[in-house]
Amino acid sequence: MSSLTDKDQKFVWHPFTQMKTALPPLPVVRAEGVWLFTEDGKKYLDANSSWWTNIHGHGNKYMADKIHEQFLKIDHIIFAGVTHPKAVELSERILNKADNNFQKVFFSDNGSTSVEVALKMVYQYWYNLRQTKKDFLHCRELIMEIHLVP
User: Fold this and answer.
1) Strand ranges (DSSP E) for the chain?
2) Where exactly are the structural domains of the chain?
């Protein structure tokens, strides 16, 4: 077993993937600008709007330098009960651009947590006003995956 794909299929369980019917993953070994490069030397346009790469590309030197600079100061700390200068700075910058009705910023690392917290905030708001409101309207979105097959 030497290929990245073989090892991946033996050891990795990919999110949002039906493991029995999914196509083999694209074995990317390098990324630069808008391009992904596979272990067999093929080049693919990265059309996935993941993180910052859809705007800035992969391997952006300015971003890498800034991330490295911050990493040397504080790489990661739990945010529950702890603060740090960049969190406060970013919160101030966001609130300065937001409507005056906003007073706080909540940071989340994923969509499901942000939705959960938003629902809890709405529930708490009505509870504080001594009004019982427990129904939420929801919409179901169709999510489509595109797989590139060599």
Assistant:
1) 28-32, 35-38, 43-45
2) 4-70, 77-128
Sequence-distant (6+) residues with CB within 8 A of 29 are: 4, 37, 38, 39
Cα(108)–Cα(51) distance, rounded to whole angstroms?
A: 14
Q: pTM surpassing 0.70?
A: no
pLDDT digits (tens, 9 = 90+) for 52-68: 777 888 999 999 999 99
d(CA 42, CA 28): 9
- The single-letter code of the amino acid at 71 is F
Q: What superfamily does domain 4-70 belong to in CATH?
A: Aspartate Aminotransferase, domain 1 (3.90.1150.10)
**How many Å apart are CA 117 and CA 70, to the nearest integer?**
27
